[in-house]
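User: I'm putting together a teaching handout on how sequence relates to shape, and I'd like one worked example. Could you take Small ribosomal subunit protein uS14 from Fervidobacterium gondwanense DSM 13020, show the sequence you're using, and then write out its predicted structure as C-alpha cells right after it?

Assistant: Happy to. First the sequence, then the C-alpha cells directly below it.
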Amino acid sequence: MARKAMVEKWKRPKKYKVREYTRCSICGRVHSVYQEFGICRVCFRKLANEGKLPGVRKASW
C-alpha cells in the first residue's frame, strides 16, 4: 500500500511529460496497471471476482 504522501505526490501534474507514469487508482501500485480500467491486476482480479466490473467474467471454470 502506498503511503499517503506518495499518493498525493503522484496526483500532482509533473513538470515534464516523460516523468508521468500510471498508478492504480485504488491502491497506488505502479506495476501492471491496465490503462483501460486504470487499476492494477490485483485490484482488477478482486473486483472481477466480486462482479463489480461490468462485462468481465472468468475465462475458465
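A couple of points you could highlight for students: Residues 41-50 form the longest helix (10 residues). Residues 22 and 48 are 20 Å apart (CA to CA).
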